[in-house]
Amino acid sequence: MDRGIPTEAVLEQMRASDPPVSYLVGTPKGRLTVLEKELLQRNWETVRAGVQVKLLPQDGEVYVLAKSDGRVDKERAIRHKKLRRLLTRLHELRKQLPDRDKLLMALGAAKKEAGKFYALLKITVPAVPEAVTAQSFTFRMDRARLRVVRRREGSYLLRSNLSGKTPSELWSYYMQLVQVEEAFKNLKGDLSLRPVYHQKLERIQAHILVSFISYTLHVCLRQRLRAVASGLAPRAVLEKFCAVQMVDVHLPTTDGRTVILTRHTQPEKEVQILLEQLKLTLPPQPPPKITADKVASATV
Fold first, then answer.
1. What is the 3-state secondary structure (H, E, C) of 10-28?
2. Higher pLDDT, 59 or 108
3. Average predicted confidence (pLDDT) for the chain
4. How many CA within 13 A on the CB side of residue 113?
5. What is the Cα–Cα distance from 210 to 117, expressed in whole angstroms?
6. Contact, 74 vs 172, CB < 8 A?
7. Band of the pLDDT at 27, cuts 50, 70, 90?
8. Which of the 8 DSSP states describes residue 116?
């Protein structure tokens, strides 16, 4: 199964393969527009708290429309933030009334920052010979498009050839794909694991083992954070823990030997509180080591 958006030719190959390949994939945004009328006639089914799903069988496949309350809140907050910044910038430009070239450059920068939400406004700019005035430079909200965006916030459309499955089963498959994708993201991001081209099988196996152990510890840290500090992500905690370092202090003696003190730095107050919440303790300071007498070593 795949979370990407493959082409129709790829899906056809998957359906025609022997044995057939099951898939659960995303769909282009335009597909939701085509199927929206039929989907509106379907009833929502709750698969878990805050998550609802609609199924639409069609041509041997099933389309899965999912909607999450948490995702609705997140996308709505992003839209409000982007539109607020865009409208503030447009009002500033109406007060400044720069020449047409500068206005177009400023609008281009505003469009880049607002992203897809720029299309929610109908902006009129003066033609080439016109001057920029309050009458020639206007903007207003596209209410029809805004209603469509509000209706689709928090929703995403999937398609699958698993037509005999229930909404709960399809949702659980999708969650498994999300977790797999998140695992690869964490391996590449938080843990910074990169390919190493080994020549021997035992080295390949050792690399896989180290990567798996690292990811396991990452998952354990995330689970602990959910219980004691749900607002913190593993990446933020790892960045804080980087302040605690292990150093070797070398102290030469008068007889030519060296005392080596291996010490970890004392954590800051914020890190100490975090360690206590996670019920973690730093290892005890190791005992000092002393090197052999250089003169005696040379004589031997």
1. HHHHHHHCCCCCCCEEECC
2. 108
3. 86
4. 16
5. 44
6. no
7. confident
8. G
